[in-house]
Amino acid sequence: MRAVVQRVSRAAVRVADEVVGEIGPGLCVLLGVARGDEPADAERLAGKVARLRIFENVERKFDRSVQDVGGAALVVSQFTLIADTEKGNRPSFAGAAPPEEAQPLYDAFCAALREVQVPVETGVFGARMLVEIANDGPVTIILED
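Request: output the structure for the sequence above.
Response:
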């Protein structure tokens, strides 16, 4: 599993010109699920995201998590994060889990965030989406599990 985590002042996801998920301050999480990933991976990665200290304290040091600041998460499935670009110019997505395996793990990741009291909004799994991100900082972290 791979996540691109961005600290945002706001983020939204649209499907067919309709907003399907929207948050204010918090995290936008682009989540890729690889073949062989398991529910334990989803829980572990969600815990890392929830505890990731990328929000500033009063001294402007990264010392607070999304939980600490009462922020939310917008979680968007993105199989392209699992791309292999070792050969040629066209990425291979063979390492990405097929939708029937990926969606339950995506759902498990979102559920694990909710269990630790992080409000979660989502896109639509497998849909073509337009993600609007106001990256605050900018701060972008890549996590893998």
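The two ends are 5 Å apart (CA to CA).
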